[in-house]
Structure formats: structure tokens, C-alpha cells
Amino acid sequence: MNHLLPLFVVLPLLGAFLNSLFVRKKAKVSDFISLVITFSLLIISVISLFLVNKYGVLIYKVGGWFPPFGISLVLDGLSSLLLFTVSLISFFISLYSINYMEKYTSKERFYTLFLLMLAGMNGVVITGDLFNLFVFLELASVASYALVAFGVEKEELEASFKYAIMSSVASLFVLMGIGLIYSYTSTLNMADIAKVLGGSLNKVVVFSGVLFFMGFGLKAAIIPFHAWLPDAHPSAPAPISAALSGLLIKSLGVYSLVRVIYNVLGLKILFSPVCMFLGGSSIMIGVLLAIGQWDIKRLLAYHSISQVGYIMLGLGLGTPLGILGGLFHLFNHSIFKTLLFLNSGAIEYSAGTRNLLKMRGLSLRDSMPLTSLTTLIASMSISGIPPFNGFFSKLIIIFACIKGGFWGYAFWAVIGSILTLSSFMKVYRYSFSTQTQGTSSVREIPLFMKFATASLSLLCVLSSLLFLSGFSNFFLGTAKKVLVDAKNYSTINSILER
Amino acid sequence: MRVYFLCFLLFAVGLYCILRKRNLIKIIIGTIICEYAVNLFLILIAYRMEGRAPIYSSGQNIENMVDPLPQALVLTSIVIGLAVTALLVALAIRIYDKYKTFDITKINQLKG
Amino acid sequence: MNKKERNLQKSSGMSLIVKTITRLTVGLILLYGIYIVLHGHISPGGGFAGGVIIALSFIHLMLAFGKEEALRRFSKEYMAFFEGLGASLFLAIAVLGFFAGYFFLDFFVNKGTPFKLFSAGIIPLSNVAIGIKVSSGLFAIFVFLVLLRIIGRDKE
Predict the structure, then answer these.
(1) Whether the predicted pLDDT of B98 surpasses 70
(2) For A17, which of C87, C97, C106 is closest by C-beta distance?
(3) In a domain, A335, yes or no
(4) Nearest to A494 by CA among A181, A68, A187, A78
(5) In chain A, which residue's Cα lies nearest the Cα of C97?
(6) Better-scored residue on pLDDT, A224 or C66
(7) How many domains does chain B have?
(8) Residue A101 in domain
């Protein structure tokens, strides 16, 4: 059963290379290839969830070399949660982009770049070696620089340039941190580093932890490092905005940060006040900056900063309830933020505008009923209204703050949620108000886009069931255990000696 | 210890170039200098006293060698740096096509 | 002789001395690049360095003779094809080890005696694949960055 693990990286790479080789013949082939590959990745990730619940940790030795000498691929609870999220969302995104990317030229190159980015994200999540993490991080980042500049308009090129410069400086910080850790422990395998360090708080380890925090924090868009996100995410085509906001900042940013600082370096106690403070300020500053925006995608990008603040607040608490809340909110945010970006793309596809003031007179609610319903569901999810999934994850995070005695953070989290609700009421009022001014030439979106958005909104409702303890133990329990007993990561290599 | 300090100084020079220069091409050159500084740092970590190059030919007995692993890391990092630089230069050419200038104070369409 | 002199005078590029020396040396540069790729497991070098040198031989051709001559030898469709071929070849080598019952990227070719040319498992094969990909990729980057101004706005 171990042999499933390389497939997460091999399948998207295979799709990308086949796409660039064989696509001269017909244009529909690339749609078909990417759909088949993302669907098979979804099936394999569901199988991996069952495997992790049965076996605990799965390790695959690449090339047959045992781990301190070779690279290993490690599948534990946290990796399988993120792999499931990435596969699910990327399946819906590739379904959506069958119709949406008709408006851009060279759709085949879009699929090549998208599959390369997917391979990079899967590789980051599943690898057990620190330098391999850096290589896949760079693969996903470079693919995303090219994807942000995909339709080559003025603003998109400028946004992509800013994003590329800031993100490559962040990767260089990560590489410097890797160099320092290698010089101190002389091994690159993550579990081996954890075993050698043994929880010691040396000055070199703390300095490299700070370097990692700066590098991965920029990829995750936490508050001092957020300046690239409001320019890069709106400029990309809508499915790529959804992929960037829903997947990339979580798998490259939050996952890598938590894995390296909690599991590999063992610095949980030292960094937890930092994570909580930056998470709390991200919540407030993201929401306050978002209320005044009139471009719908820029508003959604600022809300991404704020919701990642919730995730960092939950993960930074360190208590089991807090980590459960943070991971649950990570999964939920992928779903509803993707849905919101795909809906804004649908509005742009049909009505041709992204400005909330211009959408007002178009009476979109009558001509696009499904889109208005799914936008309503997604807005209620992100604001935390009871039957939808956002409510439960934010509730768990706020309870965890109160239980830990952090009344200030809980208060600011509640205020942030109220302000999120107000800003999404503004979005819904301006975009889907029923001021009919004559007939409009706006039609509903085509079939694949409808299917993708409808399924995602159904998932918004269904994933609130994860609050029940049976499902949450299956789904999130193993992930929570990895982060709560963070020191146990150093012992996973002993599985191979059996 | 002095050598590592000079490495960080080179990185700081590159960072100054990214932050304070107004021409797009100079910003790209600043990024390249930062990459060189980090590659140099990785190679310097590998040095052992009285070590020779880690090449193993036939008919030679093994003496002290420097650490070969960071050399493989630097090879990968140089390739990645090449890809990022090529993409940045292509973006800069396209920006010049649309904006007719390389000056970043005039390329400020995205605000707020 | 007459046609050759007319060819030399009408094509763009550099002067006659550069063109003569290029015609003598560009084959040697290509051969040297292939040597570095194939001996990657014995002496320093390997896929990336050898691939860069092979790309340099084509760039040398383009600098000396002008872009039409170089693109006649190695046109854009061939570039895209070789790039995809190199990548797929590397992935095929990796996956074949996987399916043959060994691990992913394992050695399934006979290891041979050390320091000979046909030894060290799959390392020479993957060096060849990487050499093909890097050379065509680097030449493609150079062509597109140089020709972007001339061809105009309908480029990718």
C-alpha cells in the first residue's frame, strides 16, 4: 500500500508533460487529461485518508534508500488532510475552467501550468525531507507567478512582478534557514532533525526558526508579510484566484510553517505567542481593509488574509481544541473561499465587470439565480451563520481561546466575524440586489461552471457535519494528533526498522 | 565566522538593491545578488579543514573530503534561480511593452 | 562556390571571420557538451552542465549567423517537442523502476563495475534525459526573450 504515495506527485507531472507534448492535435484533449488526473487524485486521496486511520504513518523510501541517506515520502494525518483538501478543490477548479478559460487564448498552457502547480503543492505536503520541501515549494511558486500573469494585461503583469520578487526573497530566507539547520545537525530528513535536536533551544535553532517563519509567513500572507496578496489574487483568472487563495497559501504557507516549527524544530512553546498575536492582528487588519473595497476580487483577497488569521490563531494556541478548530477552519475556508472566487468569476464571465458599483444596475438576481444562491450560501459560511460550516469552526476557535484564558483574542475574533458579516452583506446587496432597470443581456453560466459551484455549495453544508465527533475523529483526529504531540514526529523513522 | 558574516552582508546588499532602486532591471539584479549570497552561504557550510574536492576516482585512497551534500543543494538552487530569473526578465520585457517605462514609480496602476 | 559566396553576403549576422570560425567550432562544442552529459557519473558535470553547453552551441550559431539560420536548424516545433520528450523520458525512467517491482527511481539496470562508462544504474540515462530537456529549454528561453520584440504582440 505504500506505493500509492509517489502517485500524488507523478500523476500531475505526467499530465503536465503529456499536455505539452500531445496537445497540438486537438484542444479538447487537455480538458480531458486534466479532468482525469484530478479525479484520480481525488480517489487516491480518499483512499489515503482510510489508510492513515488504519496504519498511523506511512513512509515510502524513494529509490529504495533508507531515510537518513535518501529522501522519504511521509503520509501522516496532517498530510492526508491537506492532500484531500487539495485534490477536492483542484477537481472542482479544473471542472470550472473547462468553460471559463475559453475566454483566454492558449488554454493548453494554462492546464500545463496548473498541473505543475498542483504537483508542487502535493509534493510540499507529502515530502519528508527538508530540501525536497524547498524544491517543491519553488516549483509551485514559479508556476503560480506565471499563472498570475496569464492574461497579459497591464495590471496583471505588474501584480505578478511584485508577487514574484517578494516571494522569491521569501524562498531565499527559507533556503538560508535550511542551510543553518543542515550545518547544525548535518542531516536533511525531517524526522532525523527532530531526533537530533531533541527539543533543545539553541540560538542557531531559534534563529533558523525565525528565518523559516519569515519565509513561510510570506507565502501564507500573515500580517506583516501580506502586501503581495491584494494585488496578485485579483489579477489572476478566476479559477487561479481560487487555487491561490484556497490552496496555495495554505499548503505552501500554513502547512509548511506548522510542520517545520512544531514538528521538525520543536519550537512550539516559543512560537505560540507570536503565531497568536500575528493571527489576531491579521483578523482585524484584514477585515478593516476589506470593508472599503469596491472591486469584488480585491475584497475577497483581503478576506483571505483575515481568515488565515483565524487559522493561525487556532493553530497557535497549541491546545488540542485550538488545533482542531484551526485545522477545521483550514478545510472550511478552502471550500467557501473557492466558491466565492468562482462566483466572482461567474459574474465576470456573464456580466463583464468586477466593480461592485457597476453591478448594481444589472439585476443579476433574476438572470443568474443559481449564482446568487451559491453566493448567499458562501457569504453566510464565511461570516459564521449557524447551519453552515464557518460557524462551527469559528465557534471551536473562540471556545479554545476562552478556555485558554485569552479573553482579548476571543473578543477580537468575534468582532472580526461581525465585521466580515457586514462586508459580505454589502457584497450581496450591491451584486445581487433586485433593482430591475429593464431587461439585461446577462445569461446564466454554462454547465460545467454551474456544476462546480453547486457542488461546492453543497459541500459547504455537508462539511458542517464534521463538527460531530464521529466524523471529526476520522477526518481531523489524526491531523490533530500530529500537531498536539509534536515531539512524536522524531520517532516515525523507527517504523522502517520493523 | 567572518566569512559567514560577509555572506549575510552580500545578502543585505542585494536586499538594499531590491528595496531602494527604481529601475525594474536593477531590482532583478538585486534578486540575483541575493541568490548568489545564499548559494555562497550553502557552499561555505560544507568546508572542512584540510579537505579536498569530493571526487572519487579509481586508484586513489580516501583522505579528508569536504562535504559533498551542499554542493548538490547548490546545483539545484542555481537551476531554480535560473528559472525565476528567466521568468522575471520575460515579465519585465512585457511590462516595458505595456507601460513604455521601466520606472517603478510610474508603474502603479494597482492601488488601495 | 558562387552560391556559397552569395549566401555569405546576403545573410545577416556577424563578419566573415566569425562565421568561418563558428563553422569550425560549433560541432566541437556540441560534441563536448554530449561528452559531459554522458560522463556525468564519472567526472564532474552531468545533465545540467552538459545541457547548458549544448544549448550554448545553438546560441553560438544564432549569434554568428542570424536568427533565420539557427531557427532553420532547430525550429520552434522541434524545441517544444524535445522539451516535452526530455521531461517524459525522465518521468518514464522514474516510473519504470516503480512498475518493475522495485522502488520509485530505483536502479533496475545492472550496476556494473565502478568508474566504467556503462555502470551506475540509471544515472547515465537520467543524465541524458535531463541534458535533452535543459538544452532545449535554455535555447527556447533565449529565442523567446530575443525574438519577443521583433515578432510583436501575438506571442505567449
Answers:
(1) yes
(2) C87
(3) yes
(4) A68
(5) A63
(6) A224
(7) 1
(8) no
